[in-house]
Amino acid sequence: MAGFALTNVYNNFLTTYAPKSTRYDNHKRGELKSIYESIVKQSKESPLFLIDYGSETTNYAVNMKENARELSNVISSLSSEDTRSVLDKKTAYSSNEDVITAKYIGDTNDAIDPDNVPSFEVEVSRLASSQVNLGKFLQNTEMGLSPDTYSFDIEINDTDYEFQFNVEEGDTNKDMQEKLSRLINRSNIGVIASVEVDGDERSALRLESNSTGEQPDGRSLFTVSDANTSKTSGAVEYFGLSEITSPSANAVFKLNGTEHSAYSNSFTIDRAYEVTLKGVTDEDSPVTVGLKPDVESLIGNISGLVRGYNDFIRRAAEYTEAYGKSTKFDTEMRSLQNSYRNELDAVGLSFNEDGTMDVDKNLLALSANEGDPHDTLKAVTGFTNSLVNKASQISLNPMEYTHRVVVEYKNPGKNFPNPYITSMYSGMMFNGYC
């Protein structure tokens, strides 16, 4: 019975918190070892406390831990792997996103100087296209096939798929075209079927491949035939399904004046950019793909940091107000804010009465343009690092922010680490992301 109850508790814990984990919750072995060592180090000198393990305290500790973790993930998403600076994020841009969109996929360990990552001039003369077989336009209310069981084959990627259907008395061309469209689409073989209409009286079955580009051997992407089918033949010719009305084609484009082709409209350039072609460029009007200037990138990243920070502050305020037994978090955050208030205000970041922040993007851009952003906006880096440290502190020991009564202080410098009391120190279960 006890085992059943424990299983329910554990499953409830997983379903409540595990789905929230992100790729930033995955850690290297060295990082996990560092977390463990931090817990042991703090528990070595930590006084002995009496803690209220009531539901209010438990909920407060868990919520504060999760809130701090989400702030850490926001900062991680805005910075590179080797630094927590929001000024180092690389962001790709396209000078004409109606024609080309771009995403930077280069190694985050590359030099952060945008000049070290090349830009490209792209001219698009043709988009990659799929194969289309448009059948005959037939009268909607008529039917030229005799009642029987018919079948035909669609060959795609060297695999044959047979489709069987029945024609009954009273069936019409439109009925059968819609029936075949549903039959093919449900099979999910890489061909999309639809019914095209010509006015109110005629319609045709249209088949289009999911994939684009030309086959290396010149074959079509798919073929439709009933020459060797198992049931009655004749449906392919009657509906006109075998004729290719629009063959597939490769995308044709130039990179810095050199012509290239691709099977798809999405591809990578120099292992640095993932681009998607959406249209054809005008003559002598290439699209530039590169990294955004530093000012554009850092304003976007700092704005993202402020949004994440404001969410962190608002949620923590709700949790603290509901708990109502400790002011430690408020006191520490006020102290952190006061340490950076003047410097941040000078570059366009100001604190409100409730602890949240506002961004003056014009002043922020002006400050960044005065010189090297890493120098003119060093207060932002310092503030970010302080937030990372505070989030780590809360995540490691959220019980520190609950109401506790000191029972005994340890003799400073005379203690030994005890690896078996980490759970006593944290008051928490280890979850899926530690």
Keywords:
434 residues, alpha+beta, Four Helix Bundle (Hemerythrin (Met), subunit A), Immunoglobulin-like, five-stranded antiparallel sheet, four-stranded antiparallel sheet, 19 strands, elongated, disordered C terminus
Kindly describe this structure.
This protein is α+β, with helices and mostly antiparallel strands and 434 residues long. It folds into three domains: 47-87 and 295-409, Four Helix Bundle (Hemerythrin (Met), subunit A) (Up-down Bundle); 92-128 and 250-291, no CATH class; 132-239, Immunoglobulin-like (Sandwich), CATH 2.60.40. The protein contains eleven helices and 19 strands. Strands 2-16-4-12-13 form a five-stranded antiparallel sheet, with no helix packed on it. Strands 5, 6, 9 and 10 form a four-stranded antiparallel sheet that branches. Strands 3-15-14 form a three-stranded antiparallel sheet, with no helix packed on it. Strand 7 (148-156) and strand 8 (159-167) form a beta hairpin. The longest helix has 30 residues, at 294-323. The radius of gyration is 32 Å and the shape is elongated. It starts with a helix and ends in an 8-residue tail after the last helix.
